[in-house]
Write a structure and sequence with these properties.
13 helices
Length: 332
């Protein structure tokens, strides 16, 4: 049985296919519009929440910073930039800036290196390392309020756990008024912060260490590199993107620190542990000087924004360029 194939004129060589019909073009336009409307429908709720809960309060805080306002009614007593002038003449706020810088330096010099050392240790094949990882990460899961109450009891003068332990081993002289002594309060507060947050950075470093190919370390070992040389020349450069993110989060956290300080010391004694956020809360919700508190919030936002942009521009640029290149290569 034979069959005869009659080629369609549209498929013959040298014959161009007919242009798409008007119905086909309208169908494509309709599908494109449907996709656009679907994307908008999913984004509108998030955009509305961002507008109402983030953008509008920020703009209103900037507006209120130019008024003498107690928080009731609408701001009406315009004073220009007097709140900002007062801000940088206020010894309490200038002390807040100094304490913020101190916490940043201590975090970068002590907390993060300690977290990195623990991450390197727990990345080895140790018995029970999963338990130790959970143990060290556990404090980060606790809320700052619980942490503050816990260490308020531990460092209570005379009958606190810290003083009892020191007394039991014959070091009574090292105890005392941990949070109540102006000369000790920042060191004690930093100790609490380290206990609370180092586990988070440790887990970041662990994730970065586990992403490093073992073949590179083995090759360095074959070449005769010792443990320090392998860490310095192989591990540390490959861990650099994770380190940069960790530093960024640590600095931003120090700038915005509030709840842990508020629960433990409320900024005392005599403002010696106060941070910018605590000062803002004191003036805004305790003294009802909301205009001045708004100026503090604007300065906090400005410091965070300038640091974030500068850090992204000069430190994270290589990481961001690498991610962009990878995404473009994957898209191809």
């Amino acid at each position: 049985m034979t069959s005869t194939f009659l080629p369609d004129k549209r498929t013959r060589p040298g014959v161009e296919p007919p242009p798409p019909s008007a119905d086909h073009a309208r169908g494509r336009a309709r599908r494109r519009l449907l996709h656009w409307l679907t994307a908008v429908a999913f984004q509108v709720p998030a955009l509305v929440l961002f507008l109402v809960l983030v953008l509008l309060p920020m703009l209103f805080a900037l507006y209120a910073a130019f008024f003498r306002w107690g928080g009731f009614g609408m701001p009406s007593d315009y004073i220009g930039g007097d709140n900002f002038t007062r801000l940088f003449e206020d010894p309490v706020f200038l002390g807040d800036l100094w304490r913020c810088l101190l916490l940043v330096v201590l975090s970068l010099a002590i907390q993060l290196p300690f977290a990195l050392a623990m991450a390197v240790l727990l990345n080895q094949k140790l018995r029970g390392r999963a338990f130790y990882r959970m143990l060290f990460f556990g404090p980060y899961v606790l809320s700052e309020a619980i942490t503050g109450v816990l260490f308020g009891m531990i460092f209570a003068p005379d009958d606190g756990l810290a003083d009892q332990i020191l007394g039991g081993i014959g070091l009574d002289g090292l105890g005392g008024e941990w949070f109540a002594d102006p000369s000790n309060v920042m060191a004690t507060l930093f100790l609490v912060m380290t206990w609370k947050y180092f586990g988070f950075h440790m887990m970041l470093y662990l994730a970065g260490l586990q992403s490093i190919p073992a073949e590179l370390t083995e090759a360095a070992l074959i070449d005769g590199a010792n443990a320090w040389q392998r860490f310095r020349s192989v591990t540390l450069p490959l861990l650099a993107p994770t380190l940069r993110i960790s530093v960024f989060l640590s600095v931003i956290g120090a700038i915005q620190l509030f709840d842990l300080v508020w629960v433990t010391t409320a900024g005392g004694p005599d403002h010696h542990s106060e941070t910018m956020a605590v000062t803002m809360f004191q003036y805004g919700f305790k003294r009802y000087q909301v205009g001045y508190a708004s100026a503090i919030s604007v300065v906090m936002f400005g410091i965070s924004l300038v640091f974030a942009l500068a850090y992204q521009r000069f430190v994270l640029r290589r990481d961001l360029q690498g991610a962009t290149t990878t995404m473009r290569g994957g898209a191809k």
